């Protein structure tokens, strides 16, 4: 019988965790309060900018954010929910975060005081 190495022990532990269904607990907090896994609404001032988020109403154009709208100073920040439950925005596209609120805060950080310009809808 082969000797049990650290690599084999970690591989076995990962396989058992996956089979037991404990791995989803390591994913970003996709269900941070809200109905049917939808994120909770928010309205706050972050670094002097007003950020808001709420379930999107049928405004006529397609939302990739799973029916969720985010605004920075009243201008819509286009957000998208990834398959793993994380969120990205048009401003911080390569930096996924756990919630739409975190996406709005990351956008404010990236904008560094510059206004968010409306994104043209096709």
UniProtKB/TrEMBL annotation:
Residues 30-63 are annotated as: Disordered. The keyword Hydrolase does not apply. InterPro entries: GriE/MELC1_sf (IPR023199), MelC1 (IPR010928), TAT_signal (IPR006311). The keyword Signal applies. Residues 30-41 have a biased composition (Low complexity). It holds the Pfam family MelC1. Keywords: Copper, Signal. Residues 1-25 form the signal peptide. Belongs to the melC1 family. This is Tyrosinase cofactor. It comes from Streptomyces olindensis.
């Amino acid at each position: 019988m082969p000797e049990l190495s650290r690599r084999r022990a970690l591989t076995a532990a990962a396989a058992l965790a996956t089979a037991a269904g404990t791995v989803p607990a390591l994913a970003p907090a996709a269900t941070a309060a809200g109905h049917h896994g939808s994120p909770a609404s928010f309205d706050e001032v972050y670094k002097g900018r007003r950020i808001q988020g709420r379930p999107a109403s049928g405004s006529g154009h397609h939302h990739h954010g799973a029916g969720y709208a985010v605004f920075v100073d009243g201008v819509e920040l286009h957000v998208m929910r990834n398959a793993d439950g994380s969120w990205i925005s048009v401003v911080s596209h390569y930096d996924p975060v756990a919630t739409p609120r975190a996406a709005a805060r990351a956008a404010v950080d990236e904008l560094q005081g510059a206004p968010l310009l409306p994104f043209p809808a096709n």
